[in-house]
Amino acid sequence: MARSRTSKTHYIKGEVAAFKRERIVDAAVDLFYDHGYEHTTLDAVAQRLGVTKPFIYSYFESKTALLSEICSRGIKASLDAINESLALRSSPVEQLNEFSKKFTRAVLQSQKHIAVFSREEKNLSKPDFERISDMRREFDRKLTALLDRGVAKGEFRVRDTRLVSLAIGGMVSWSYVWYRPKGRLTLDEVANQMAVLILQMAQARAVET
């Protein structure tokens, strides 16, 4: 019983810590997005949250570490999208269809994070930049491999899978610029339309979207 109470206490503490960490990231991404990384201090982040700067240091060792966390969010969500889709026991065309929707949602739900990354990657430390670049290369490799499998099975008609992979990544990643949450199309409608376009790019056999 005592061990059970201890485990529950540790779980609750972990949940509280994760919540506080998310609050810091949310405040920082808004400030970095609105004012730029170089014009935002940790004092400003603390003021936005109504806490002291030491509170932030208890979760992030520096402003650069906070920037790294923000910049990695979009690519991590994109990697999760392709990993989850590849884990499905289905055909390459069905995996690509599912991935296209998940990838679009991942990008649009990380809209400000990706905007901050595109503007502020020059301010990342070299190790953080390399780590995020490795994640992007892993994403590209996995998407290219999915297209290769589809071509081998006769489900896609693509001459250059690497080029198509980059084109898909660029098209969806750029949607953070023009998408508006209260715009003409809902997030799900955009995701579905993107899936149609991506399947067309791969010249995939018919699939229900």
Structure description:
The longest helix is centred in the N-terminal third of the chain and has 34 residues, at 2-35. The chain has ten helices and no strands. By secondary structure, it is an all-alpha fold. The radius of gyration is 20 Å and the shape is elongated. It has two domains: 1-60, Arc Repressor Mutant, subunit A (Orthogonal Bundle), CATH 1.10.10.60; 70-209, Tetracycline Repressor, domain 2 (Orthogonal Bundle).
Q: Quick summary of this structure?
A:
With 209 residues, this protein is mostly helical.
For the structure shown, list the relevant keywords.
10 helices, Arc Repressor Mutant, subunit A, elongated, Tetracycline Repressor, domain 2, 209 residues, mainly alpha, single chain
